[in-house]
Amino acid sequence: MLQRLLLLAALTASTLAFGAPDKVLPVVQAKLTSPPFVPPPTGRKAPAKVIVELEVIEKDMPISEGVSYTFWTFGGTVPGSFIRVRQGDTLEFHLKNHPSSKMPHNIDLHGVTGPGGGAASSFTAPGHASQFTFKALHEGIYVYHCATAPVGMHVANGMYGLILVEPPQGLPKVDHEFYVMQGDFYTTGKYREKGLQPFDMEKAIAEQATYVLFNGAEGALTGERALQAKVGETVRMFVGNGGPNLVSSFHVIGAIFDSVRFEGGTLAQKNVQTTLIPAGGAAIVDFKARVPGSYVLVDHSIFRAFNKGALAILKIDGPEDKSIYSGKEVDSVYLGDRAAPNLKAVATATTAAAAGTLTPKDQIAAGQALFAGTCSVCHQANGAGLAGVFPPLAKSDWFGQDPKRAIGAVLHGLSGKMKVNGKDYDSVMPPMNQLNDDEVANILTYVLNSWGNAGGSISAADVKKERAAKPATTNQAGH
Ligand SMILES: [Cu+2]
């Protein structure tokens, strides 16, 4: 008797769990959004048949100021369009590949239960479309990505995005939901080397990223494109990591996550400072905006943030709360040239240099922007230096006597005793050979023409000569 009851209970439960057969499900069209936006909650109390249409587009887009890259995208953006459904929904998935594409593509959704996550059923040649259907059995936040060979290359070119499978009751309500996804990129040119940069397979295999980015471009979420919220509001971020190689130590400087659904799963960890997001994984972080200011989203593998681009801003407006924080902006301390992205002047100078029309005026404007992010932390924005520690660049006799010496100082660093304007210094300036020839020339031209210095200019050719004469073999400072 008991057994029969249990069997009956099990049957009832399974009928409930799987719901009515497909043909009576209401049919809805999924609303997809481009990052950093997230579609509204489904608001549904029961499963539906959801039609998803996603188009692959290969296109050139900026990856940094003055630098472009041929991205392969799901929906025209990196990361790809955000998809939002409800647990128990049946998804009829249509993958289209734009006729202008050069490659075939497919999609592996980590929210699919089935071989290849849909990859085998969705292989789509340029100018074609394919269709497959799956049931979203598990709630959670899932990565999707292209899985066409060479898989690493398709992912490295930006082919990933997120699909949220809401629990039946939905997620707790918040004031803002944002879509942020990290990825690593590999270009043949150096970081910020201008022009259209091709993918570099060797760097990708060696896992030596040129760029590590949130939402596919340096500055995608800074300046006017920063995420915004107000004091007192709740913020939720769906944070994915497309990889292809690097694991993200996701952190928001100055905020503590009230809760993190780590690894995209159902368990929520409370009071988290930094959450690890694996390549091909995602997390949901929730926190409340309490103190106004600029909050910097970083991969706390921190060279990636300051030297490879993994940096975004959440700007919180509203009244101060001195009982929590005394105030004073941290922007300039942390951000350098990223606080007010004025890299336009840098790009203008590069274009002019390529066209052979570069003027000292272009150089000075570009140099000023770069000086702010590179030299001013030590030598100060007014070039006055700091007594006994950092020598002045304003009216420096060391610099004035032979400005070209400064090229070597920047490329190779300086250390040991030196005299500037009669005062002794015995400190270390680190080499900054990550700067390219144009950048060094423009910075020094700016210094030559500022703070009462003698004027004149340094050319990229001068820098090239010095670099060739003494190539950087180590990162040690030295004379
Ligand atoms: Cu692909």
List keywords for this structure.
479 residues, alpha/beta, six-stranded mixed β-sheet, 12 helices, disordered N terminus, binds copper (II) ion
3D architecture notes:
By secondary structure, the chain is an alpha/beta fold. It has helices spanning 2-18, 151-156, 201-205, 303-307, 331-335, 344-355, 360-374, 376-379, 397-401, 405-412, 437-448, 460-469; strands spanning 27-29, 49-64, 67-74, 83-86, 90-97, 108-109, 129-135, 140-145, 160-166, 176-185, 195-196, 211-214, 227-230, 234-243, 248-253, 257-261, 269-272, 274-277, 281-288, 293-299, 311-317, 414-420, 423-429. A hairpin with a 2-residue loop joins strand 2 and strand 3. The chain is globular, with a radius of gyration of 26 Å. It starts with a helix and ends in a 10-residue tail after the last helix. Mean pLDDT is 89; it is low at 1-20 and 473-479. Bound molecules: copper (II) ion.
Q: How many β strands by DSSP? A: 23
How far the N terminus sits from the C terminus, by CA atoms, comes to: 91 Å
Structure annotation, total helices: 12
**Quaternary structure of the protein:** single chain
Helix % is 10-25%
**Heteromolecules bound:** copper (II) ion
What is the topological layout?
Blueprint: H1 2-18, E1 27-29, E2 49-64, E3 67-74, E4 83-86, E5 90-97, E6 108-109, E7 129-135, E8 140-145, H2 151-156, E9 160-166, E10 176-185, E11 195-196, H3 201-205, E12 211-214, E13 227-230, E14 234-243, E15 248-253, E16 257-261, E17 269-272, E18 274-277, E19 281-288, E20 293-299, H4 303-307, E21 311-317, H5 331-335, H6 344-355, H7 360-374, H8 376-379, H9 397-401, H10 405-412, E22 414-420, E23 423-429, H11 437-448, H12 460-469
Parallel strand pairs: 1-2, 2-5, 3-11, 4-9, 10-14, 13-21
Antiparallel strand pairs: 2-3, 5-7, 6-8, 8-9, 10-12, 14-19, 15-18, 15-20, 16-17, 16-19, 20-21, 22-23
Helix pairs in contact: 6-7, 7-11, 11-12
The chain binds copper (II) ion.
